[in-house]
Design goal:
The protein is of the alpha+beta class. It is built from ten helices and ten strands. It has a five-stranded mixed β-sheet. Strands 8-10-9 form a three-stranded antiparallel β-sheet, with no helix packed on it. It has a two-stranded antiparallel ribbon with strand order 1-2. Helix 3 packs across helix 4 and helix 8 packs antiparallel against helix 9. The longest helix has 22 residues, at 161-182. The chain is elongated.
């Protein structure tokens, strides 16, 4: 892969194969480009895709593209200089910081005018500030949802493997989200979930991951449920009766009227139509 002149070439080794920043060919007027993700961390394989952030002049447009170059997939995050601050705030609000980490920790491919260096400094400042804190309502909602998942996990028969595995996945994701938030740490999805989780809390994070593995390999939910209980205890304990959530009408407007009758009910197990995440029952009006 080669960068169009006059951009300088930077060669890196990914999964045993030399790679040069040719993804910038997709944006020949790029003001800067940086390679991030597994390729920079030395965890990439020959099948790994490449994560590349590219700075564009304001005459261009911000976008996200997936390309294939020399047989390798590359995910391009293209942003104009003016759009970068707003996008960084959006990335921070998601609590993942995906592109923030690419800029802050990635390997520069080209920076002919210094725009990339300044953008990397901004990304590092945002990362240093950490993700936004959860609101009291978000903490309470998270505790309730995680409690529901823990109860469902223990209540589901190992014979119902599809259900058990699905619940275990949701349980791990919610627990990781709350535990990371407790430490004011960044979270992730996919392969980045265990990486960020172990970085935020090595001991409790490993307990959650080991418990999830036990469900997958042995259909045994106890280790995961125990690890979840430890996380909940950090946050004030399990939350069941007494939990309250705003009306769906207040959240989504009156466009639901005439489609569903919305009724607040106790959290009775097995109640048809109960949304475990909200405690509301949606019943058709006819």
């Amino acid at each position: 892969m080669f960068v169009d002149a006059p951009l300088r070439r930077t060669q890196v080794d990914v999964g045993g194969s030399p790679v040069v920043g040719g993804e910038v060919q997709q944006a020949p007027h790029a003001l800067g480009a940086v390679l991030g993700g597994s390729a920079v961390q030395g965890r990439a394989t020959s099948a790994s895709d490449l994560d590349v952030a590219i700075l564009l002049p304001d005459s261009d447009s911000s976008r996200r593209e997936i390309i294939r170059h020399d047989g390798r997939l590359a995910e391009l995050f293209l942003h104009t200089v003016t759009d970068v601050p707003e996008f960084f705030q959006w990335d921070r609000a998601r609590r993942r910081g995906t592109v923030l980490f690419i800029y802050a920790e990635g390997l520069p491919l080209t920076d002919p005018h210094g725009y990339l260096a300044r953008t990397r400094d901004k990304a590092r400042a945002v990362l240093a500030a950490g993700p936004p804190a959860l609101t009291p309502a978000e903490w309470e909602h998270g505790r309730y949802v995680l409690t529901c998942y823990m109860d469902d996990l223990l209540d589901t028969s190992p014979a119902d493997r599809y259900e058990q595995l699905s619940i275990a996945d949701h349980t791990l994701r919610e627990a990781a989200h709350l535990l990371s938030a407790h430490h004011s740490a960044w979270t992730g999805i996919g392969k980045w979930l265990p990486r960020r989780l172990l970085s935020a809390d090595p001991e409790r994070g490993k307990s959650l991951l080991d418990g999830h593995q036990a469900v997958a390999e042995r259909a045994d939910p106890m280790a995961l449920a125990t690890a979840v209980k430890q996380v909940l205890d950090l946050l004030g304990g399990p939350l069941r009766e007494g939990y309250s959530h705003p009306s769906l009408f207040l959240q989504h407007g009156s466009n639901l009227a005439g489609v569903f009758a919305v009724q607040r009910t106790p959290s009775f197990e097995g109640l048809l139509g109960l949304d475990r995440a909200t405690g509301w029952v949606l019943r058709p009006t006819s």
